[in-house]
């Protein structure tokens, strides 16, 4: 039907931070995978048959839909986000090295395993301005600036360190985009990297740590899909 309607590409949502509709080595399989098989493999097969590009879409960091036992394990390892008041958020903390590795490994896994035309980032950001303020973020931020934060997290939320803190947040998201782009192109030079982004740039840098104009300028993305809602 898509081919007859002259579509030339699809961007199907195939995995999240904690669940996959394909045969992942790193993430739990979804019920869809268990019942209907490898969704990326099927999409690529159909795409090749009908001349339609397939750009699998990942929801990054967000652990919605992840199995409870998977989230519980991450919690025990101190890998979830926290609000400024300490309340937990079911998202991967982007500054945690194991979370960065998991996100990168799962982006590159799809590039390696399947003859896809591209990979697409979504939720490539923080939920909002109220995270992440976990103990690990404090430790890693202090290491970056070379001194202790005296009044945590107030100095970062609205105090004297707010500029450095906002840049720290941007850096955590940007490093995943850059690493994915550079390493995916080493695997498949023709691969296209894209992202769904918020439209209100440059406020996105402060609010959600999403410096997407930088990503375009540096050539880490081939195209963007600004969210229009």
Task: Tell me briefly what this model is.
With 229 residues, the chain is α/β, with parallel strands linked by helices. The chain has helices at residues 31-36, 39-50, 68-76, 97-113, 135-145, 154-157, 162-187, 203-208, 212-217; strands at 9-10, 13-16, 53-54, 57-59, 80-82, 88-92, 118-122, 192-197, 223-226.
Write the layout of secondary structure elements.
Blueprint: E1 9-10, E2 13-16, H1 31-36, H2 39-50, E3 53-54, E4 57-59, H3 68-76, E5 80-82, E6 88-92, H4 97-113, E7 118-122, H5 135-145, H6 154-157, H7 162-187, E8 192-197, H8 203-208, H9 212-217, E9 223-226
Parallel strand pairs: 1-3, 2-4, 4-7, 7-8, 8-9
Antiparallel strand pairs: 5-6
Helix pairs in contact: 4-7
Give an account of the 3D structure.
The chain is of the alpha/beta class. 42% of the residues lie in helices and 15% in strands. The protein is built from 9 helices and 9 strands. A 5-stranded parallel β-sheet has the order 2-4-7-8-9. Helix 4 runs parallel beside helix 7 (162-187). The longest helix is centred in the last third of the chain and has 26 residues, at 162-187. The mean pLDDT is 97.
